[in-house]
Amino acid sequence: MTLFTKANGVRAMLCLVGMWVLFSAFLSYIDNKTATYSTFSRLSIRHVHRFAKTVNVSSDSYSNKSSKGNDILTSGNQAAQLFDVGAQIVGSSLSQQNNISKKYNQSKNGIIRTIKNQYSVSLKYGCKEPQYDENEGPISPNTTLESLDIVEAELAPLLKPGGSFQPHDCIPKDHVAIVVPFRDRYAHLAVFLRNIHPFLMKQHIAYRIFLIEQTNGRAFNRAALMNIGFLEALKIYPWDCFIFHDVDLLPLDNRNLYTCPRQPRHMSVSIDTLNFKLPYRSIFGGVSAMTREHFQLVNGFSNSYFGWGGEDDDMSNR
């Protein structure tokens, strides 16, 4: 009997191809598991350093004609249909946001209540902006890699449900929503939460962190996630300030105030991986601060940018 026949050769080739496909699928599975539930060996944190500066964005002259309604709002101040990025889509009218505060005051389970409901009569003084000299400002982030369970156990006694905080010894002037677009970067998330909460607690602001996660297999759409975070946050409270924050950025100075000035602010102006220099003047990515009114005025971020980059420059132009 001849062993090496043409038929046997074909069978052997098909067998080898099948084994290779199975082996490749196994390696892909292992890589995905490692990327999602890693021991944080791939962690890379960018540090925000020194002071944030105010970037003047000419929002009054901006007209959103090129987006064709493909942003956060359309004409009539209605919420636009966002791209399907695997997160909850908000379709309610933003014109109702003036009623949010009234409805919110009536809720017994609210996260952050109004001044009249939250504070006692004896609490008369507003929170003062923290002051730091040159020696007290710089800080060293804790980049020890821990699981989210450990981080939660550390922070839970200090926070209210949902990741919110407000000072108990004074009336906060600023109510800030921190919107973090996210997908699969659990190592960064653990380090971010472990550092940002203690940092914000010292600033005497009322805040809540909103983690907006993309769960489908499409290319990452950071802009759409931030639009969704803006709309979802307004369902809970009429925040006056929004900080849009990458999960891999950590502040390095206590004098970086997480509040909104009169003009939109680019906060991550000095990053270690860029030698603490701006790559170009109009950059607006990383960490940025905008009031609710400014964000609505420029119609939010464009939803057209999938993958890395573009949406921040688009917002800067607005």
Automatic annotation (TrEMBL):
Classification via Gene3D superfamilies: Spore Coat Polysaccharide Biosynthesis Protein SpsA, Chain A
InterPro entries named among the record's database cross-references: Galactosyl_T, Galactosyl_T_C, Galactosyl_T_N, Nucleotide-diphossugar_trans
Pathway assigned in UniProt: Protein modification; protein glycosylation
Cross-referenced Pfam families: Glyco_transf_7C, Glyco_transf_7N
Ranges that cross the membrane: 12-30
CDD domains per the UniProt record, alphabetical: b4GalT
Family assignment from sequence similarity: Belongs to the glycosyltransferase 7 family.
Protein known as: Beta-1,4-N-acetylgalactosaminyltransferase
Organism from which the protein derives: Ceratitis capitata
